[in-house]
Amino acid sequence: MITLTSDFGEPYPATMKGVLLSRTDARLVDVAHGLPRQEPRTAAFWLREVLPWFPPAVHLAVVDPGVGTERNALVVQAGEHALVGPDNGVLLPAARELGEPEAFAIDPDHEEFPATGGEGSTFDGRDVFAPAAAAVHETGVEAVGGLEWLSPVDDPEDLRFPEPDLRGREASGEVLVTDRFGNAITNIPGSVLEERFGEEVAVNGTAAPAERSYARVEPGHRLVTVGSHGNVELAVNAGRGDEAFGVGVGSDVTVSF
Q1: Do 144 and 106 fall into the same domain?
Q2: How far is 160 from 90, CA to CA, in rounded Å?
Q3: Which of 61, 95, 98, 238 gets the most CB atoms within 10 Å of its CB?
């Protein structure tokens, strides 16, 4: 299996699939191609949440504002999985969830690299990452270190999410991402609400009930809940929590009890 994740929209993912299908009979599974453009942190969050639910696979992930620069292209081996993508931190949070990461730099100019022959320097998804992902799949994840066009990297770019500040009757953090429903997902652990469901809390001074699910409040009403990712989430039943609470990605959030 090879999964594909990008911020490409359409039709660019089809080109990557064409490269993959010409080199492997692996099952191709789309994770997402509508991620926010050129936002590696958002992509890293969703990869971290989604990829651990997959069986062993090769994961091709391209959110790459540095395409065409000197940044490395990576294969990261993690347990029974391998992640392929740019060296901008997007791969490491998911890799840590999958195993002990070991990073390798791709040399697309190596004589053994399975090049596509594509021209230009703007589509590494087609010309570097897709052929690398196909080759890793066909070689086997356990044999990654033996590929001639890979070399170990001791200090790949990392991306770590900020830690919340938990003290007494207050928890402070920030909005990491918002999903397509408008739910504002914070870095505050859901454990802070464990004993408070059914009570009213305050988010940046705005009162809202802490509830286990959206439908426990009337449509259009705010709530604070814990999402499937295990973090505190600011939401509205049948509405947009980011708008109702006046927050966006990177906004500071303080939940008071």
Answers
A1: yes
A2: 10
A3: 61
pLDDT at 228: 95
pLDDT digits (tens, 9 = 90+) for 72-120: 999 999 999 999 999 999 999 999 999 999 999 999 999 999 999 998 8
Instruction: State the number of CA atoms in the 13 A half-sphere of 162 facing the CB.
Output: 17
* Residue numbers of the chain with a pLDDT score lower than 50: none
pTM over 0.85: yes
Given 153, 184, 215, which residue is the final one in a domain? 153
Domain that holds residue 225: 165-256
pLDDT digits 0-9 by tens, 123-148? 999 999 999 999 999 999 999 999 99
The pair of three-digit structure tokens given for residue 153, joined into one six-digit string: 């990297």
Q: Is 102 part of a structural domain of the chain?
A: yes
DSSP letters for 76-144: EEETTEEEEEESSSSSHHHHHHHS--EEEEE-TTSTTS------SSS-HIIIIIHHHHHHHHHH-GGGG
Mark whether 28 and 120 lie in a shared domain.
yes
Cα 104 from chain centroid (whole Å): 20
Terminal CA-CA length for the chain: 46
